[in-house]
Amino acid sequence: MTEGTDVTTATERDPVAGTESRPTARDRLRSSFDRAGHLLAVFAGIVFWGWLLTRWLYDWVFARLGIGPGAGEAFLSPAPFEALAASLSSAAGSFGPLGVPIGWLASAADAAALGVEIGPALATGAWYTVLLTLSSLTLGFCIAVPLAILRVYGGPVRWLALAYTELIRGTPLLAQLFVLYYGLPLSAWLNDFSVVGRGFVPGYAFWIAILGFTINGSAYQAEYIRGALETVDEGQLTAARAIGLSKFEGIRHVVLPQTLRYAIPAWTNELVYLIKYSSLAGFITVPELYYRGNDIASSTLEYTSIFGLLAIVYLGLVLSATNVMGRVERHVAVPGLGGAEGRQQEATE
Amino acid sequence: MTAPRTDDGDGRTADERRGDGDERTGSPSSATAATDPLLRVENLHKSYGAEEVLRGVSLEIDRGDVEVLVGPSGSGKSTLLQCLNCLTEIDSGHIYLGDTEVTASDTDPNEIRQQIGMVFQDINLFAHLTARKNITLGLRKVRGMSADAARERADSELDRVGLADQADSYPAQLSGGQKQRVGIARALAMDPEVMLFDEPTSALDPELSNEVLTVMDELVDEGMTMVVVTHEMRFARGAASGITFLADGQIVERGPPERLFENPSHERTAQFFENISHDHD
Q1: ipTM score of the complex?
Q2: What CATH number is attached to the domain comprising A281?
Q3: Which NCBIfam families does this entry report, sorted A to Z (chain A) (predicted)?
Q4: Which of A220, B54, B116, B220 is the S-S candidate for B239 at Cβ 3.0 to 4.6 Å?
Q5: In a domain, B251, yes or no
């Protein structure tokens, strides 16, 4: 409110700017909506990540020290929510047709009770999902960059990169996971490592899933990076070589830094995909988010509410991911390179 | 105005070299330069697919010379420059820089390119780096200079082209003329023996061309050896020690600017200068 009036007086003091940019009532309304939306998003983010981080920290550290209700147990009791749901639905019955909205509230209270109950399981699942996504994306990136460079600058051996990319992109991810999990003796080999599956270290299925997602993601990322490599003007590499850099150094110091900036939007896309695709790891018994939700749903049969809650957690992860990547893009933005500059100007207005 | 350039190959600053004038035999260190041309091209052939772009070009350029290459488009001028800088592989012939054969199989092209500065028609500043970092990249990665030394050198080169105040600007924030001046500074920072200019002003408005040409004129005054492909006849008249007219991949005629402009011995040359002067007036 006070901020709004400040803007008006500031523009009135500057008559030139005032004619151009005096905020109308509609603009003020829109900007206050924007502010409210922003605050809401920040609040939701803090609640979501606060809950996840607290949960993880508690399950790993404090529960092991014997503090609190124990690992995987809810902090709150679902009883008050259940009682609220019961009294709301009985109230809804007594109001007749007017009671329908009250019935919705009763359902919401029911879902909240369920959320409290299965929250710990979802938080553990989310941990696997986050870990799986981040490590696969990072490892996949390390393979994708040389792959894309080979594809664009490889000369006679570029077909190697092409064959890898097309083979991986051309076959279903689930089939790839099954081949790795059932078809290859990886599990026996991984079990030879005495640390796998003990203490904090996840079981072998998790490592196989990381391998699968890394291979799969590397092919997709290589294509994004290849596209971005081809966007960079040929003259950039020529100029790099003209000052005495080798072709490799030119790619490393001149072409790649520009390429990776161009590739950020597509890379964000891959991250978002991977968060949800990681649910396929559930099919090879990795206890990630989807696996947990499905597991509980098939024993309680409350599919709608459980998948609704599952969707909220996935949404929270995806929105956080796009938000972070947007920040990264703005942070590394260089004037005149890619589209980030234009979007940044909008954001700072 | 000029930064001391003690590691200039012949061990003298630009001002000392300018003082020599035409008497290059004066000091013992440059005695060889007088007898041997700095840049020598012998019977150079180059094809792109079926099209032969250079058909037996031979050329000798002495230290301190400013050779202007002119000719109709497609005559092979730019290709010749790219061959000199090993940016394009040649089919046959020889190129020598001082005593080194550029075209020898055991010559490292990266070493050659360090000694030959190149300025491009489409400028090609590194788009993700500031003006200063455009210059420091080569100093750091090729010369292995420390960050501080490279920065100092970059700033003095930017000062030399009159852009000290734009050191932190990105290419997209500079005008075309400013960008090309950074391009020249970037090449100069590597202490090249020769500077190649491939139509440095063709992409610029006449106004912006002038600021680039001024910088080039200063380089001429400092005694830099230059090979310049350009349509700027004002620069050619004022600065060139020799003009080479190329057509269809061959040198048609070569000589001092006065003779080529006033009294060319080939009809083809006369025709070309006639056309150019019409275009530019």
Answers
A1: 0.82
A2: 1.10.3720.10
A3: HEQRo_perm_3TM (TIGR01726)
A4: B220
A5: yes
